[in-house]
Amino acid sequence: MSESSNPIIVIRNLSAAYVSRNFGWFGKKEIKPVLNNINLDINTSEIFGLTGESGCGKTTLARCILGLIDYEGEIIIDGQKQDGFDPGHNIQMVFQDTASSLNPVKKIGWLLEEPLIIKGINPSVPHSLDHVRASTDAISLRSSITEY
Q: How many C-beta neighbours within 10 Å does residue 60 have?
């Protein structure tokens, strides 16, 4: 099996639903199915994009993969069956709304450095900043990390 056809994420028969809250004494909980029997393989070295209408379940699927919400079915990441949130695996959500994701008060260098420190990739600030500088040099952004 070639590397490009080796699944890094396997999803089988994934279903998820949201349960509404009880309102008042006689409030009734409602179950709203969001995902129904999703099957998906994402292969190593594959570029994967998930698109769809607002409210179709894209974020819910991402939350299931991250283990942030309960689901039925099976999710396997790097050959390991997932059972809830695991801060050790190298998966994270990237939000499409930059206005809520990026802090306009912080400089680009800080925004790029923060995840490295949080994930413990370069736990000391000088080393993580070196990593950011090397990465931004590679794409000709070096001067921008301290100016903007």
A: 20
Q: List phi, psi (to 5°) of 41.
A: -120, 130
Residue 148 and residue 144: Cα distance in Å, rounded? 6
Burial grade of 23 (CB within 10 A; 0-12, 13-18, 19 or more): exposed
DSSP state of 46: -
- Each residue of 97-135: pLDDT tens digit? 666 667 778 877 787 788 777 777 665 666 777 778 887
Q: Does residue 1 register a pLDDT over 60?
A: no
Residues 6 and 67 occupy one common structural domain: yes
- Report the number of distinct structural domains present in the chain: 2
- Same domain for 78 and 116, yes or no, is no
Residue 57 gets the label, from left (phi > 0), alpha (psi -120 to 50) or beta, of left
Q: Has this prediction a pTM greater than 0.85?
A: no
Residue 129 belongs to what domain range? 94-148
CA distance 11 to 38: 7
